[in-house]
Design brief:
This protein is mostly helical and 367 residues long. The protein contains 17 helices and two strands. The chain folds into two domains: 122 residues, no CATH class; 235 residues, no CATH class. α1 crosses α4, α6 packs antiparallel against α12 and α11 packs across α16. The radius of gyration is 24 Å and the shape is elongated.
Amino acid sequence: MTRKRRRTASTHRATLIRVAIVAFAVVMAAIPLPRSLVETVYSQRVYPIVRQLVTGLSSLTSLVLFDLLLIAALVALVGWWAVRLIRAPRGGRVRVVVSLAGHTVVYAAAVYLVFLGVWGLNYRRESLGTQLSYAESRITEPVLERLTAAAIDTLNQLYESTQGRSWPQLDELPVRLGPAFERVQQQLGVSPVMSGLMPQRSLLTPYFRRAGIDGMVDPFFLQILVTETVLPFERPVVTAHEWAHVAGFAHEAEANFVAWLTCLAGDEVMRYSAWSSFVPRLLAAVPEASRQRLTAMLGPGPRADFAAVRARLARTIPVVRRNARRVNDRYLKANRVASGVASYGEVLQLAVGTDLGRRQWVEHAGP
């Protein structure tokens, strides 16, 4: 085979590979896979192996690998386009732009497939509500009002009993809260269980602060990023939420539920963090007339803490926060979470409508 033919054959193979990558990405994005198949094949078998491998490697460094990936990708993309356009022959710039756009689509498709393989397919697993026999009939206004009153009473008591105790720093949480997280995973059938990961501080923190983002999971290296401006009593539940994502609970309501269970399984400080995040969701779910009566039950300590959270969020930039919320909403819906950002509040369905959730109320709030 002549050199020209070999070059032509190599070009054809490369083109076929690029087309195959894009086509496969489109298929994976468009075709709904059976949730039972994703659950049994990916979430229960493949993902635990991927998680152990990726977290084992990423935990070897204190560097925030997502930051490095983002910077490298942006520099490489901009530099590649700039060099190609500068070197484009006169009259051939349109052809170069088309070629660059095509190659960029291929790389984006490849990144999307990596995202799915490393973590993203967990969005398509069976819902935790299905696994825990969720029953909508259990969630009624009288039940919510009774549970809200019990939660507020518990929160008030925990506030008094935790006075004088130190709140854990982010780097202390794997030791202080990690064992509780492992016990919750065992309850939920996660195997093998994962240890609590060290929260990382991202270069994106200034943006997170302005957008009102408390934390996120790096879906490529499975490091957790927690904004250092979250208040001390928020740290445990925010960190446990991100741990839950890495454990395979991609849905925001499920991650909130696992975080709630984890903090309830910890000491009094952790339990206060659990209820302080949960009471506002409960109050938002009850009728307005009941909400005013129940809010009046809050003690001065929890009231001050809720005011501090509102003050923290007030320091965000509204336009940045709205845009971040819009992007997150589209991202979640693109990953089969139909309710988008509203899914965060659906944790009440798991906490009130499942046997496991109701047992927590009996054990920790007593109704």
